Amino acid sequence: MIERPRTDKLVVDLRDLRKTFTLGGAFPWSPRREVYAVAGVNLQVREGEVVALVGQSGSGKTTVSRVMLGLEEPSGGEVWLDGARWDGLSERARRPSRVRFQYVPQDAMGALDPQQSALEHVVETLTVLGGHPPNEAHDRAMAMLERLGLAGRRDALPREMSGGEQRRVTLARVLALEPRLVVADEPTSGLDPDRRGSVLEDLIGNLPPKAACVLVTHDMSEARDWCHRVLAMLAGRVIEEIDLHAASPQHPYARVLFDPWSGPIPKGQLQAEGCPFHGDCPDASGVPGGRCRAERPELSLVSAAGAAPHWVACHAAARAAASALLPEADGAGGAA
User: Fold this and answer.
1) Which of 160, 172, 179, 250 shows the greatest Cβ crowding within 10 Å of its Cβ?
2) Strands of the chain, DSSP E
3) Domain boundaries, the chain
């Protein structure tokens, strides 16, 4: 992980974010149903911070990233970017600030114009979005391509590039704008393992000094190696927020995500009542009163005083954390 300065100034502040989709059936007369893709997510990202959103497909992490940037409108809650309210604005109102909040798509090839070279892609971005004069845009584009190791490929078309080169062109377009926020949706998807680290190094290592980054990923090693904090999502909710350099995952679902050797990834149906994971959870039987089946757990602080904040939405983890404090409390009482 590349260490970056952190301050208290928020670049991203999501407050009780919700997103609901209404789906129809196979026929016009089929009943419609609501899908709660995001259900009450709170997320803060500070200057210089890299935060990962992780989880299996359908957990809600990509929807959170799209709502964050205004590519989807929320069904509830608030989105604040760089201290200003972002949700509910028209695209015309967002346009002057849009250049500061950038998105790295998962499909690099689909995001590139097949008739434009690497250099032309970056120059166009700088002139159209950045408002730079053509000569200045050309110089800035060449400088960014050189930083990303693409100076010798400046005239290559997308079909002539490798997958890694296509990703670097999309990164060059974003980073050349010197954004305040970069949201990267699976930026290494489809790449060979030996190329993934270099693409993330190009992204995170070239962020502006006070920029924030949200990394959406399935790759737990990426989250561990490159991010300050990780938020694990399940069924549209954050079920654990953790600094992996200071603690280990406590939620049973997050433990399996980060350590596949600890057990199989659950494939059972998520539960509508109580904890959505209780049907596959190995710890649910140890929680008295059937709380896991009856009561949905909220995020609770399980870290010790003075340690990096560690939040988990799990009855078993909260019970274990409370039990760990009992001997210390008893000792203090005896001394008194």
Assistant:
1) 172
2) 10-23, 33-46, 50-54, 76-81, 84-85, 101-104, 181-185, 212-217, 229-234, 237-242, 300-301, 311-312
3) 1-100+179-245, 112-177
DSSP string, 283-327: TGGGSGGGHHHHSPPPPEE-SPTTSPP-EE--HHHHHHHHHHHHH
Q: What φ, ψ does residue 102 adopt, rounded to 5°?
A: -115, 155
Least trusted range by pLDDT, from 84-88, 103-107, 170-174, 187-191: 187-191
Give dist(CA 68, CA 102) in Å, integer.
11
Task: Give the helix/strand (H/E) hosting 258.
Answer: helix 252-258
pTM of the predicted protein model = 0.88
Q: State pLDDT tens for residues 193-232.
A: 878 889 999 999 999 989 999 999 988 888 888 999 999 9
Is CATH 3.20.20.70 what the domain over 1-100+179-245 is classified as, yes or no?
Answer: no
